[in-house]
TrEMBL record:
<keyword id="KW-0346">Stress response</keyword>
<dbReference type="InterPro" id="IPR007052">
    <property type="entry name" value="CS_dom"/>
</dbReference>
<dbReference type="InterPro" id="IPR002068">
    <property type="entry name" value="A-crystallin/Hsp20_dom"/>
</dbReference>
<feature type="domain" description="CS">
    <location>
        <begin position="39"/>
        <end position="145"/>
    </location>
</feature>
<protein>
    <submittedName>
        <fullName>Heat shock protein Hsp20</fullName>
    </submittedName>
</protein>
<dbReference type="Pfam" id="PF00011">
    <property type="entry name" value="HSP20"/>
</dbReference>
<comment type="similarity">
    <text>Belongs to the small heat shock protein (HSP20) family.</text>
</comment>
<dbReference type="InterPro" id="IPR008978">
    <property type="entry name" value="HSP20-like_chaperone"/>
</dbReference>
<feature type="domain" description="SHSP">
    <location>
        <begin position="35"/>
        <end position="147"/>
    </location>
</feature>
<dbReference type="InterPro" id="IPR031107">
    <property type="entry name" value="Small_HSP"/>
</dbReference>
Amino acid sequence: MLLERREDFFKPLRQLQREIDRLFEDFFAPVTRRTFEVGFVPEIDVYETDKELMIEVEVPGMDKKDIKVKVEDGVLRICGEKKLEREKSDRNYHVVERSYGKFERAIRLPDYVDAEKIKARYENGVLTISIPKKEEKKAKVVDVEVE
C-alpha cells in the first residue's frame, strides 16, 4: 500500500521529466528536421586569413545559375532557390527530409575589405566567396617586449 502511494506521488514528476526530455530533443534536432517548415537555409562558414575574408556556403544539389551574389551598401547578399524535383511521377516517396525553396543570407561586411574585388566560385555543392582586405588595413603584428 505504501509503495502504491509512493508511485502515485512520483508519477507527475516522471511525466514532467519526459516532457522536458522531448523539448530538448526537439530543440537540438538536426537542422533538416527544424528547417522543414521554413524552407531551405544554407549553412555558412565565415573566416579570415591575413589577406582576405572567406565565406563558404553549403548549397548542395543546386546549379550555379540559381545562385546570385551581390554587395549593396556594405552588405553581402547571397540568394537563390533550391528547386523541388518531385515532378517525376514514377517515384513513390516514403520520406522527404531534404529542404527546398528560396533563400537569402545577408552578411554585413567589415570596412577593411575591398568589396570591388570580390570573387565567387561554385564547386562540389559549396559556394566559396573571397573578399580581399584593403592594403592599408592589413593588420601588422608588432612584438612588444615585456619588462
